[in-house]
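A.,

Following up on our hallway conversation. Structure tokens first:
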């Protein structure tokens, strides 16, 4: 058996692996753009209707009922503050 060395081993002048900072920057940018794209697509797919009239106008179907939000006392107080109204003197 004979062994011949065709090319002697040598240290490469350029790194064999990809440029890590450039790769990480590209992956981060791609992830952010993909996340924004998915969020925008989901906002178009999952449509919500604020009023019953809006739902009726868009679907042209009769609306039999709706579900309204039930707020506790703390949430009502926060909503009044957000709207710039003073708390009701009759609330306990």
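Then the amino acids I'd put at each of the 92 positions:
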């Amino acid at each position: 058996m004979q062994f011949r060395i065709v090319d002697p081993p040598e240290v490469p002048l350029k790194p064999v692996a990809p440029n890590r900072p450039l790769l990480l920057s590209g992956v981060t940018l791609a992830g952010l753009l993909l996340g924004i794209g998915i969020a925008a697509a989901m906002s178009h797919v999952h449509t919500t209707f604020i009023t019953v009239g809006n739902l009726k106008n868009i679907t042209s179907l009769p609306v039999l009922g709706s579900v309204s939000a039930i707020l506790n006392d703390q949430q009502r107080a926060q909503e009044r503050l957000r709207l710039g109204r003073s708390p009701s003197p009759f609330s306990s």
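The CA atoms of residues 10 and 20 lie 23 Å apart. Curious whether your intuition agrees with the design.

B.
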